[in-house]
Amino acid sequence: MAFGEIPVGVLFSKSGSYAAIGQEGYWGARIAIDEINASGLFDFRFLRVDGDPKGSAENYAVEADRMMREAGCRHIIGTQTSSSRKEVLPVMERGRGLLWYTTPYEGFESHDRVVYTGACPNQGVVPLFRHIVPESGRRAFLLGSNYIWGWETNRIARELLAGCDGEVLGERYVAIGDENIDHLIVEIREKRPDFIFNNLIGESSYAFLRAMKRLAKEDPAFAPNRCPILSCNLTEAELPILGAAAEGLVSTSTYFETLDTPENEDFLSRLEGLRGPDASISSMFVGPYEAVWLLARAIEACGSDAPDHVLAELCRRPHRTPLRDIRIDPQTQHAYLQPLIAVVETTGPERIRSRFRIIEKTSGPLAPDPYLVHYDPLESNAGSSGDTPEPDNGNTPRLRLVSS
């Protein structure tokens, strides 16, 4: 079946307090669209329709509505925060479109108008805590930006700690973009946790990490090897902003630029000519990039860009992207993904060049479990492998971390 141009919305904040990751998402989708259009593999072309909500959750719905009503988009790649995703859901319902949500998130959602290709809790926060508690201890301080991601991810952290007789020494929130964090440093210094779980985003997170770097110089008890800072969402896109302030941070993701596979080597080599030799590639870039390729493969396979047909095809079998095959679970519309654990290392004469070194990973992609239905807290953080029951036929690798 031959097509003409298919409009695809690309909805990321390229300005505002979390612009660094928004730019990554935009470029990931843009480069994938350009590749697909130039590939000669498909009987259609994608017409990119851009929207910049400028970091305002309310603007996402306005932009999504414009894309669907005025430009005819039935598929929208993007939205970064959970608040912005929630704002867009009624628009997708009304227009019967499909939102491709590519950011790691707090889970506890499965919407029929969304394909979730970012990590959900059993692919992010759970493996991160399974790594850190045996290594560092069970006394945690929880931080978050004051919106859904921070609240819900910290709620899951509380449950994980409760399952191993851990303790939350403090739980604090600041407004998105707020850099006034001195009171957090004072409290952390007083309570002396074993580790800090940082769910701040954007400028708030950068200010906090810089302040913790200063604290570690004053008091070695807060050095990364003694009081590590954890993140589920800090990426390569933000390392140049932070420099040495990110050193020692432990993060989880389903992609790091240092992933050692032939496919990733080819991918990075190809992108070097498009983004320049010094541009890092992060999961915030890769998620939208892969989503666009998944969309193209599904349209090709089912012969239609109708969202319901595309979704049915996605859930029928895995589809190939330039980096890996991706399978979408038909029950939850979430992707099977491989969790990776990495630590930030800084190098160079002024210790300003940073990279993630992968230290643990699962043996393969994990079945998504956004509601943690199959998660047993009694097995989680006691240092065991914690095999996780799978919601499918049992052929997916279980949650067992192995050294990289």
Automatic annotation (TrEMBL):
Pfam family, one: Peripla_BP_5
Source superkingdom: Bacteria
Signal sequence coordinates: none
Region (Disordered): 370-404
PANTHER family with a match to the protein in the record: ALIPHATIC AMIDASE EXPRESSION-REGULATING PROTEIN, PTHR47628
The protein's name: Amino acid/amide ABC transporter substrate-binding protein (HAAT family)
InterPro entries given in the database record: AmiC_PBP1 (IPR039570), Peripla_BP_I (IPR028082)
